[in-house]
Amino acid sequence: MNKTEILEWLKTDDTDKLQELWQQANEARRTSVGEEVHLRGLIEVSNICARDCGYCGIRVGNRDVCRYRMSADEIMESVQLAVGFGYGTVVLQAGEDYGISREWLCDIIARIKRDTPLAITLSLGEREDEELVAWHQAGADRYLLRFETSNRELYDRIHPPLPGRDSDRFLILRRLRQIGYEVGSGIMVGIPGQSFDDLANDILLFREYDIDMVGIGPYIPHPGTPLGMSQADLQCPPGEQVPGTELMTCKVVALTRILCPLINIPSTTALATINRTEGREHGLSRGANIVMPNLTPKKYRELYEIYPAKASCDENADESNARIKKQICIMGRVIGTGRGDSPNRKNKAA
Ligand code: SAH
User: Fold this and answer.
1) Which 3 state secondary structure label does DSSP give 200?
2) Which atom of ligand 1 is nearest to the CA of 49?
């Protein structure tokens, strides 16, 4: 599929025609990665952040956030929940928190590897090269760093670099691959100032960069952020602005599956947030094969407010686990077993 065709899909409102897209994506998903839906236990280890991203509720400039960092023992308790629920992976996610030191995290990674069979995904922002190397050596398997948008001007506007440093997530993505990580990236759909052309480029870049897993979620305005407060001024000219809707997010999921059939694609929490009743299922039936149930202790969950009214904030880990597994089974899909490594990566290694 070329860029013109991608743009046609992104711009169409023809619901009959879209059935073809959903069908094609679902078929690509079925034949390339199968019926299994792999579950990743998400642990939001810290909401402390050095960055001031225009879109994100836990940006350093948001003084209304009560900050926390989980202790090593608390993290291990959440990790044990993942083992108990039969998950294959834990995802340790946080703001860009430099209080998470290289050594501290190496110890935790080593503990998880010693005590459990789990794969470990890190999602900790733009960390130093030597930290990324050390964590991989300690046993971390995957790293998740969304490039958010491939429009450099827009990216710079919403994602200011740390003083005296450049922020080049594409460079880091290449390094992650060299270091030996399975590499995850992704975008937000509907960022004010994001055009259809930008979005088509994003999708093509997933393929060009040979990304192993791609997270796609709608941009959800947060009132405690500059972007959330002044959206209207930043929008593209009429007809060019991508809407941050469920439909648009599903189109990007479907097109990504068709272009990169072997990758892992989560049906994201943000998608489940903008359509609480069916968002998750729609993602799974239009190309996604991963769900990331939240295992963060309830008292911290609501403090990790990257966007408002995040789905599953009102539940504990047991409840999320049971609900999500039931949803998957009702859809006629199978709960994944094993680590659920990206078939895209396995394909390369073979
Ligand atoms: N500090 C890490 C993890 C950030 S949270 C990092 O920067 O990589 C993970 C993802 O949440 C981000 O990559 C971003 O795509 C998404 N996110 C942040 N704010 C959001 C918002 N307001 N709406 C939707 N998604 C958001």
Assistant:
1) helix
2) 1
